[in-house]
Write a structure and sequence with these properties.
15 strands; 33% helix; 17 helices; three-stranded mixed β-sheet; 445 residues
């Protein structure tokens, strides 16, 4: 039986815009009110996904959310026709309208936490959509996320779908952006690392002072229970509160793992050596590679600006590991020098591939934000909805679909255009037919 780590990238939605909604995310705030290009953003994401498929990796796509989200606007008191709801929200609550137009579901690292069948007691792959309660514009995603995941991984013999955690700050959950997995081979039992920002039920525990800690220990523990993980396969690590206050809003902005490699900044965690020892003690098998990037070589601000750690580490069919990095890493002198040095240090990371995903980067999401990792065997991969898996046909169809439906430019004031509702719904309705998802959106019910 063969084993893979499939990447399921988020397809950028038609309302991709720069509203600066994500407090604590430096790039999002710095580019607020800039004019976006939904068409370019979608094509950049598709190009990256296709390139990984061409490298021989299992690659899929996840559909975007329905935006503008008129269902949520109606829930909070705006009434009338679709155009009237949009007009009233734009006039009386523009901040709420912007939240209901966000295309943030493109960052599927926040879509859910996934545990492979090799780790779970029932031998199924478990999915829990993230509740994303810390940010209004993301908190409206989980139900539709669950629908899309269930339509993509649609075989109950192999996939177990959970409801998102209770919608309360005590269970703040940001998905796989705060979760990684270490193993010998993807099909072997591994160690799942849950990184949290604070203990919600312990007011005396350390936490950041400036920016919010979006992931709680309580949420991470709940997911480990839901996914039927035992103590020997779970490690809970606190992210350094000081780096959260410097703009490291998720663990995947300061650390990333793949198989037997943990690539992290020296300031990433609390009690680093103690936790590394715990990981080593629970890891059963080959040598672990802890690659620590020192502050002297790459400072926190360089790491955040370049998204050095929001890269993907992938294992190529020839067994070599490669980093999938944004071109921003090339443009940062310290980071580029470090990556050039890294590939000469011997195994396991031997290659770096750079991709232009600037439309996503300007809103605070790099290559790792754009993908949800799902470790699976060939039987499980065969059970995935085949119309969501990247190949030449799907790549061409989705590019033509983007050309047909997406705008070249979108300014913040364009979010109040009623025509955007029609364009978005028409596009998504056609997409569900291309990907054979069924009725996953509220407007289709």
């Amino acid at each position: 039986m063969k084993h893979y780590e499939a990447n399921f990238d988020g397809l950028v939605g038609p309302t991709h815009n720069y509203a600066g909604l994500s407090y604590g995310n430096v790039a999002s705030l710095n580019n607020a009110a800039a004019i976006s290009s939904p068409k370019a953003a979608a094509k950049q994401g598709l190009k990256k996904a296709k390139a990984l498929a061409d490298l021989g990796l299992a690659q899929g796509m996840l559909a975007p959310q329905e935006r503008p989200d008129l269902h949520t606007l109606r829930r909070i008191g705006f009434s009338g026709t679709d155009a009237e709801v949009l007009n009233k929200a734009a006039k009386h609550a523009p901040a709420l309208l912007r939240a209901c137009c966000s295309a943030s579901s493109m960052w599927t690292a926040n879509a859910a936490t996934v545990s492979p069948s090799a780790d779970t007691h029932d031998g199924k792959i478990h999915f829990t959509p993230a509740n994303l309660v810390d940010k209004l514009h993301r908190s409206i995603e989980p139900v539709t996320t669950g629908n899309i995941l269930a339509a993509t991984f649609n075989n109950a013999r192999h996939f177990h779908h959970h409801q998102h955690l209770p919608e309360h700050v005590s269970f703040g959950d940001e998905g796989a952006a705060n979760h990684t997995r270490l193993c010998n081979e993807y099909g072997h039992a591994g160690i799942e690392l849950f990184v949290y920002g604070q203990e919600a039920t312990n007011p005396s525990a350390p936490k950041p002072k400036k920016y919010p800690a979006r992931q709680t220990l309580e949420a991470s523990q709940a997911i480990a229970r839901l996914h039927q993980l035992d103590d020997e396969s779970s490690v809970f690590i606190q992210q350094n509160p000081d780096v959260i206050d410097q703009g490291v809003f998720h663990n995947d902005v300061i650390a990333v793992g793949n198989q037997n490699v943990l690539f992290y900044h020296e300031q990433a965690f609390v009690d680093t050596q103690k936790k590394l020892a715990e990981i080593q003690g629970k890891f059963n098998g080959n040598e672990l590679h802890f690659i620590e990037v020192p502050t002297a070589k790459v400072g926190i601000q360089d790491a955040v600006k370049s998204y050095l750690f929001n890269t993907q580490i992938v294992t190529l069919p020839n067994g070599e590991m490669a980093i999938i990095a944004p071109t921003n890493c090339q443009e940062n002198e310290a980071v580029y020098a470090y990556l050039n040095e890294l590939v000469t240090m011997g195994p396991p990371i031997k290659q770096v591939h750079y991709f232009d995903v600037k439309q996503s980067m300007q809103n605070g999401g790099g290559p790792a934000c754009l993908r949800l990792r799902v470790a699976m065997n060939d039987t499980e991969l065969a059970a995935v909805n085949p119309n969501t898996l990247m190949n030449d046909e799907l790549f061409n169809r989705l590019n033509l679909w983007v050309d047909k439906h997406y705008r070249d430019e979108l300014a913040i004031e364009d979010l109040a255009d009623p025509q955007l509702i029609i364009e978005s719904r028409t596009a998504l309705d056609e997409l569900t037919q291309i990907m054979k998802l069924g009725s996953v959106y509220q407007f289709q019910k």
